[in-house]
Fold this sequence. Notes:
- The chain is 25% helix and 29% strand.
- By secondary structure, it is of the alpha/beta class.
- The chain has an eight-stranded mixed β-sheet, sandwiched between helices. It has a two-stranded antiparallel ribbon with strand order 8-9.
- Residues 1-23 are annotated as: Disordered.
Amino acid sequence: MPSTPSKNSSRTPDTVDQVAGEPPVPISLWRTARTADDAPDLIGVRLAAAIITSYANVGDTVADHTTSPTIASACAGSGRRHTTDPDPGEAALVVADRPETTAAAAVLLGEVSVALRPGGCLILVDPADAGPVDLRPMHAAAAAVGLAYFQHIVAVAAQADGDRFVYYPTPAELEAAAEPAGSGHVRVHRDLRVYLRRAGDADA
Length: 204
């Protein structure tokens, strides 16, 4: 789970890396290099493992609302219980692909607000090809059902060489980026947003 600053920490709240916005939240960088088993459009093996082990303890229930089989595999390999249909208040963690529409987001957030136990987290994973998007409406909708925007995670899929990330795009990735509808660059990260079920909002 995300840690709070220790009593001996010299950092102050003003020096913590944050994402500017409404509200501003801490930002974390994860090294989750791709493996040979990863599918380009799905959550990678290392990213799935990092999500599960960082936000759920052994024996906890993880509710899966993604299209990626790696979440179930990560749960099985780390002693977490995987389900797609949790009982009310059962889930310590819900992992979901970020909804593309307002209507879909409303449905998901409603389900999550029932499934999560107090202190549990929802993690929304951006599509692999996601571009810039205004998520303030999502944050507001989550807050309305008792889910506080808690953290932004940037999961980098490139290999690390010392303090540098190194990635060599494939010919197919370069071709796709150069298409008229392409982004003009090759993305080597996924954005994750974490929402916290506050204990006092269990009945929100």
